[in-house]
User: What shape does this take?
Amino acid sequence: MTDARADLDAALAAIRSGPQGSAVAAIFDFGGTVIDAPKSRRLRRKPADVLLGGIRDHMTDGEYSRFLRELSEALAGRSEQELDDLGRRLFQRTVYGYLYPEAWELIRTHRAAGHTIVLVSSLTRFQVAPAAAQLGIEHVLYTPMATSGGVLTGYPDGKTLWHNGKAEAVATFAAAHRVDLEHSYAYADSIADLPTLSLVGHPVAVNADDALSGAADRQHWATLAFRPRRAPRASDYVRTAAGFAGLLGGALFGVASKALTQDRQRMADALMAHAARNTLRIAGVRVRVTGREHARSPRPAVFLFNHQSQFDIIIVPEVLGGGVTAIGKKELTKNPVFGPLMRFVGVTFIDRANTAQAKAALRPVVETLRGGLSVAVAPEGTRSYTPEVGPFKKGAFHIAMQAGVPVIPVVIRNAGEICWRNAMVARPGTVDVAILDPIDVSAWEPGDLDDNVARVRQLFVDTLLNWPH
Assistant: This one.
């Protein structure tokens, strides 16, 4: 275990054992603390470039002044709705990949402690609000922008949340929400945030610049170091291409090795086993599993996995072994690599935009289960932008109830680190998987389904919060 990981684990343990409840706040700076700095163009004139370029770490007074000038030129005359939409697109296209997983661990631990979580930034809501929404953070403080006649003037509306302005906004919020700052936490990376950190009883310097690092040392504040978020390197592209070649080669070898049996299921099992194993080995990805015994018994079952990465398609077959097919979204049929392979192994594709057709497509899956073949499903229905577990759809649970088989949670951690949500490039690393105890759904009543599904989802949340060892 690295020193940085040990420091984070100690911080998480202190939060769990410390004061609980909403009177304690956890105040997070945005750029450099929750989000690493995405790469952006040096010449920033378009709104997208300005908003993206403003998300950076260790910002100085001069850099913030320059950002405000660029903001004025780029945003003046545009509507708030236009920029809200742009901010969401930027998050979904780029910013999500620069979320620090360590920050997410802190946020979810504070949430479990019942703390009031606040995301605060000197930037605009167009940059900060999309991330807050994905992280489930209700309270967001930012520099408001003035409007006139329904469009932005390009200038801040009042005082910016820079330096003392940010501290004043936090103090005002604390007074309005009965927050006890003496028992609260604040996380920031820049010396400009010294006034904010000084407000609370538990200040933490995160990836601190030299000036803040010195101040933290003098005042004996806690410090944390998060791993930098980096864009894919040339070696990652080469390794990924080789991995896909290995996937196709392994798939062909698997089918050929069982072709003489003329048993399609045995060929499908061999396809998945060799394809997954080849891809993981060449890509440099290790899968570490706890609860492996639940992958094989009981069978058949509906395996439920949380979904953050396209690499889950490789991880799940590796963990569960043979005798499993899946349910996937219709769009996957267009994937030139995964589409044909998934069709061969009998994946049921559903159109998420058409509820009636989706339900009709799922009916044969009940017979598949009754015939002895297990099914793997992502109950969130889509990949998440953060490690947060999204809402669960009920289709997989209906199937399990009708077929009379258990559901088995498969909790995946770190897959989004290996392969970002919208990317096809894999980085080397370790993915952790916890296969939880089977859940008997035979006594579930339709009227209690929402509560039962919520309890299963909470198992995923709790497991990610306190990983089994």
